[in-house]
Amino acid sequence: MAGKKTPLYDEHLKLGGKIVDYAGWLLPIQYEGLVIEHNAVRERAGIFDVSHMGLIQVEGRDALAFLDYLMTNNINRIKRNQIIYTFMCYPDGGVVDDLLVYKHHKEKFLLVVNAANLEKDLEWIEENKNNYQVEIEDITEEISILALQGPEAESILQGLTETDLSKIKFFHFKEDIKICNISALVSRTGYTGEDGFEIFVQSKKVEKLWEQILDFGKDYGLKPAGLGCRDTLRFEAALPLYGKELSADISPIEADLKFFVKVNKPSNFIGKDALKEQVDGNIKRLLVGFELLDRGIPREGYKLYKADKEIGYVTTGYMSPSLGKSIGNALIDIDEAKIGNEIDIMIRNRAVKAKIIDRNFLKNNK
């Protein structure tokens, strides 16, 4: 199997990880099993190797203004050591990528982007650099990232550092934290609906850190977790995945994520006019949640119908490990996007009844 390997590739094999090609990277889809790992994160803790995520550093005197021009969210409003979720959009409102922006200070930022989009993102950023005085650097290979997620995440990591982790607020980060005497940048965002941390460390030191966190975390029920449960966890928590709920053809407004599109911010940004039109009501479809009323499992791409008329398709669907029922996200005609509306989903040439529900499937998630 050809593909890029993270520095932890051999560790995944040692732990029995089932390796798949994901966005050109060889990564574990699971170890013991998707449901076991999913439940470990919901109930105790799981640790993910997310070193495949793209890391782009933007530095220079115009870094703040440049990123505010590229991004839909208001980059001007975040403070030092704060993180913001945002989109880069095309002029028509389609999404280049969804990402996290880490602010070191007004002249230095870190962008955490989707692995599959790294090359495209770099090209887009360079193309739109114009006369902004900035330097753009891909540091993906230099830095590895571990994601420690779950109710016991803070207890586990706190046992390995003298820094008071309770002081790191949600969507903030702190640099130069010593974990097992290894210097790391630690943030608190998460992609699972649970509390947790992202640990950014030099790639040559990540293997030692992975081993020590896993060893120390055993008493807390910590398990290594693969990409399979990462998807079920994020989906239950109503978090989007690029290529499913967002794409060049699906705007943030259609994806029901207009909160992160600040069409009223003072500065101009790419896609502003098209997105403002959509915010003002000019959309024909919307992302909704649904629950099956009959037996079956909805899969990505399955078509939705209302009275024999095709009205949309499934973007993500699963038998939810946490809720024990079949749920999903679907992009459907705006006229049908009403909570409680009953629809049909074609599953293996059979019409299965479903009902539109709130997409925040886990009411108490973070």
Describe the structure.
The protein is an alpha+beta fold. It folds into three domains: 146 residues, Gyrase A, domain 2; 85 residues, Aminomethyltransferase beta-barrel domains (Alpha-Beta Plaits, 2-Layer Sandwich); 100 residues, Aminomethyltransferase beta-barrel domains (Elongation Factor Tu (Ef-tu), domain 3), CATH 2.40.30. Helices cover 19% and strands 35% of the residues. The chain has eight helices and 20 strands. The strands form four sheets. It has a six-stranded mixed β-sheet, sandwiched between helices. Strand 2 and strand 3 form a beta hairpin. Helix 2 crosses helix 7. It is globular, with a radius of gyration of 21 Å. The protein starts with a strand and ends in a 9-residue tail after the last strand. The mean pLDDT is 97.
The gist of it:
With 366 residues, the protein is α+β, with helices and mostly antiparallel strands. The chain is 19% helix and 35% strand.
Reading the helices and strands in chain order gives: EHEEHEEHEEEHEEHEEEHEHHEEEEEE
- By CATH, the architecture of the largest domain is named 2-Layer Sandwich
Enumerate how many helices there are, as a single number. 8
Roughly what is the average pLDDT, rounded to an integer? 97
Assembly type: single chain
How much helicity do the residues have?
10-25%
Q: How large is the radius of gyration? A: 21 Å
What is the CATH class of the largest domain? Alpha Beta
Q: Approximately how much beta-strand content do the residues carry?
A: 25-35%
Would you identify the regions where 5 or more consecutive residues have pLDDT less than 50? none
Looking at the structure, the CATH topology of the largest domain is Gyrase A, domain 2
Query: How does the helix and strand content classify structurally?
Result: alpha+beta
Q: Main beta sheet: strand number and arrangement? A: 6 strands, mixed
**β-strand number:** 20
Question: What shape does the CA trace take?
Answer: globular
